[in-house]
Design goal:
It is globular and about 45 Å long. The longest helix is centred in the first third of the chain and has 11 residues. It is mainly β and 226 residues long. Strands 1-2-3-4-5-6-7-8-9-10-11-12 form a twelve-stranded antiparallel barrel. The protein is 5% helix and 65% strand. The chain has one domain: Beta Barrel (Porin), CATH 2.40.160.
């Protein structure tokens, strides 16, 4: 099963709310707050898992983006916070966008000392024209190296997005990962994003495991761009 998941990650790309391979415009900022709950339908009476996420980006220049990716799992008592710098590798012309990034941060668990984390990443994306409206496709991949334990977690998310009308987005994300001490997973995460006001969006999403996991969940998020 581990080999199957890694092969899928490579097929989906060597490398949502995230800009992925597209840089933030110079001087532009983006904030996203999300809350996700998931549970195993086969375990009756169990307590759902809960995860709160914070994502922020700021455009330092035409090709350089500064970001923060943080989250907290309430039930496990674990947290992660990574600051990163992403640089566009393309010249901004043509359909394809490619970017590389390097993140530094820490991860921890209640009652334990925080562990430093090094996270390089590679992203690819391109715009799409469809009969239902403009859209995009992208792949974001990361290798999260945990310095003290010398363990490495692999993650790759493939995203397909569509804008059927102004202010509305339909998104399908295929999430894959291989984390130390856990089975490799593949999840499907569709979501609907609706503009609210001039600068905000609301996101309502679902998650369903297809490989290595049996949980299903729901996600509610807010986006603010300015």
């Amino acid at each position: 099963m581990r080999v199957i998941c890694l092969v899928l990650m490579l097929l989906l790309g060597a490398p949502g709310a995230h800009a992925g391979a597209w840089p933030r415009g110079e001087g532009q900022a983006f904030l996203s707050f999300s809350q996700a709950h998931s549970a195993d339908p086969g375990q009756r009476g169990g307590t759902p898992d809960s995860y709160a996420g914070l994502y922020a980006e700021y455009g330092l220049g035409p090709r350089l983006t500064l970001g923060l990716d943080a989250g907290h799992a309430r039930d496990a008592g674990s947290w992660t916070a990574i600051a990163y710098l992403r640089r566009s590798l393309d010249r901004g012309a043509g359909r394809h966008r490619v970017a590389a990034e390097l993140g530094l941060g820490a991860r921890g668990r209640a009652g334990r000392r925080a562990e430093p984390v090094l996270r390089p990443g590679l992203s690819w994306g391109m715009g799409l024209n469809t009969r239902w409206g403009p859209g995009w496709a992208g792949v974001e991949s990361y290798a999260e190296h945990r310095v003290e334990s010398a363990e490495t977690a692999l993650k790759a998310d493939t995203t397909l997005g569509l804008k059927p009308r102004p202010g509305r987005m339909l998104i399908l994300q295929i999430q894959t990962g291989d984390y130390p001490g856990a089975a490799p997973y593949l999840r499907l995460a569709p979501s609907l994003v609706q503009r609210v006001g001039r600068h905000g969006h609301l996101e309502l999403g679902l998650t369903a495991a297809a490989l290595g996991d049996t949980r299903v969940g729901v996600k509610l998020g807010t986006w603010v761009a300015f």
